[in-house]
């Protein structure tokens, strides 16, 4: 049982709250019972305090990696989020190469350019999973999907579909097009209204959606590279949608159009 | 110029970070230039530091309430969010009575039951505004829409449509039905698939959507009171959608169906 917050093993896990340490060591922390359950087959080690060990004995019994008992103080020191609920694990990074993620004739792909809020990124991952997307790509300059807030917001979806982290946007668009996807950029000033695309049946085609930064939107480069710039209709007085809400509207519009078209 | 963090005026504003103080005094704090701009006609007072006063001189010139210069230390002490960007205001609570919010033959209304995350509530407000909803109701037990995180996530939409805070769910559903709205409850186990409702044209009718708590979903009472329990199709392996993503999908499905049907 590990009780010292200052022990080298504890410090080694704590360092993983920093993106640079995660990238150097190729591993990240998965907090709370839900995420630990989803990640279980991949986990390298699990840490659990006494009360969580009792609550989750079945879960822990199915772990194939070492399980270490720790004091609640150590557990809290290991965690980046305020309530890890007594259990966390260390997993290898999930990053998948672009070619592999887009290699199986994808029909729906979600690309985030410079999305900076990890909660938004995690919510988009969860929504993309629900909409049946084949992959999510976070291009260079986006938040790290392995950060604790993104992992939590993804509610397990990080393990449900291929996630690509860090490729340049140009390379991503080229790979998407090579995979037969129509590339649609979302922007408030887009020339094509989402409803018109739906009316014309164009969303039945295999599609990669591009979504931009929370404040700045997509870059000019992204808008130039895309096949179309699409505007989500705003019927009220909001200036725009939150990026996770925009992704929900577009990905579900595609999912329905592809289902009806199929 | 106000420079003491301990001055009674500063303390009076700081207290408004607590819901109980906001309710007792009938006012709340609006942080950052975007929110201050939206709220300007209603503001009771504005606080600004030197650098923001320079950046936003046109905005401040159009204020009809007192504008007080404060030190940056005081501004930060007044604010609940980490980066108020040098300016904030105090506004009367926005709460509108249920009868008034639903009094103008509404076609699309969004009801949140026990939604606890203020960021989710604010994102739903912004999405409801964008989808052209006529009102948003947060029933008793939901987060306060006047909290700083909700105000920020709403990105100004709090001032764009009537927001009702605190009525009991039963009363809300009764009022919605009396206003001619079909009441649809969202739940993962709903008997009606959203796509099927769309196929049958049922979303063209005036609709109140009910969305539930992030963890527990809608209460059994809400499911019983609604006309239909609707399930958003999950094509992948996600267990469910985040409440703000679910609201985006449903509200935009209604907005499109009502537009096509009209």
Keywords:
elongated; 13 helices; Alpha/beta knot; seven-stranded parallel β-sheet; 2 domains; 262 residues; homodimer; alpha/beta; 60s Ribosomal Protein L30, Chain: A; four-stranded mixed β-sheet
What does this structure look like?
- Two copies of one chain form a homodimer.
- By secondary structure, chain A is α/β, with parallel strands linked by helices.
- Chain A folds into two domains: 8-92, Ribosomal protein L30/S12 (60s Ribosomal Protein L30, Chain: A), CATH 3.30.1330; 98-261, 3-Layer(aba) Sandwich (Alpha/beta knot).
- The first copy, chain A, is built from 13 helices and eleven strands.
- Chain A has helices at residues 8-14, 19-25, 33-39, 50-55, 57-61, 72-78, 98-101, 118-130, 148-154, 169-178, 194-199, 220-225, 243-261; strands at 27-31, 45-48, 67-69, 87-92, 108-112, 135-138, 163-165, 182-186, 192-193, 207-211, 228-231.
- In chain A, the strands form two sheets. In chain A, strands 7-6-5-10-8-11-9 form a seven-stranded parallel beta sheet. In chain A, strands 1-4-2-3 form a four-stranded mixed beta sheet, sandwiched between helices.
- In chain A, helix 8 (118-130) packs parallel to helix 13 (243-261).
- The first copy, chain A, is elongated.
- The relative contact order of chain A is 0.13.
- The mean pLDDT of chain A is 95.
- Chain A binds chain B through residues 119, 123, 126-133, 153, 155-157, 160-161, 195, 198, 232-242, 244-249, 252-253, 255-256, 259, and chain B through 119, 123, 126-133, 153, 155-157, 160-161, 195, 198, 232-242, 244-249, 252-253, 255-256, 259.
């Amino acid at each position: 049982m590990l009780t010292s917050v200052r022990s080298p093993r504890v410090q080694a896990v704590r360092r993983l709250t920093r993106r640079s340490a995660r990238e150097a060591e190729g591993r990240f922390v998965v907090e709370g019972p839900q995420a630990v359950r989803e990640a279980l087959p991949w986990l390298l080690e699990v840490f659990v305090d006494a009360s969580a060990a009792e609550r989750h004995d079945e879960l822990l019994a199915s772990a194939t990696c070492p399980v270490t008992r720790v004091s609640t103080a150590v557990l809290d020191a290991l965690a980046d989020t305020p309530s890890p609920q007594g259990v966390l694990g260390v997993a290898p990074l999930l990053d998948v190469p672009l070619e592999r993620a887009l290699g199986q004739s994808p029909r729906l792909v979600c690309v985030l350019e410079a999305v900076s809020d990890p909660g938004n990124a995690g919510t988009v991952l969860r929504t993309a999973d629900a909409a049946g997307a084949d992959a999510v790509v976070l291009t260079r300059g986006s938040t790290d999907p392995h950060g604790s807030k993104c992992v939590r917001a993804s509610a397990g979806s990080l393990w449900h579909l291929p996630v690509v982290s860090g490729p340049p946007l140009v390379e991503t668009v080229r790979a998407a097009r090579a995979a037969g996807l129509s590339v649609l950029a979302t922007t408030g000033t887009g020339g094509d209204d989402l409803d018109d695309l739906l009316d014309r049946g164009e969303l039945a085609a295999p599609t990669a959606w591009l979504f931009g930064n929370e404040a700045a939107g997509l870059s000019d480069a992204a808008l130039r590279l895309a096949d179309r710039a699409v505007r989500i209709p705003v019927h009220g007085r909001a200036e725009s949608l939150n990026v996770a809400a925009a992704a929900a509207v577009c990905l579900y519009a595609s999912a329905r159009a592809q289902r009806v078209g199929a």
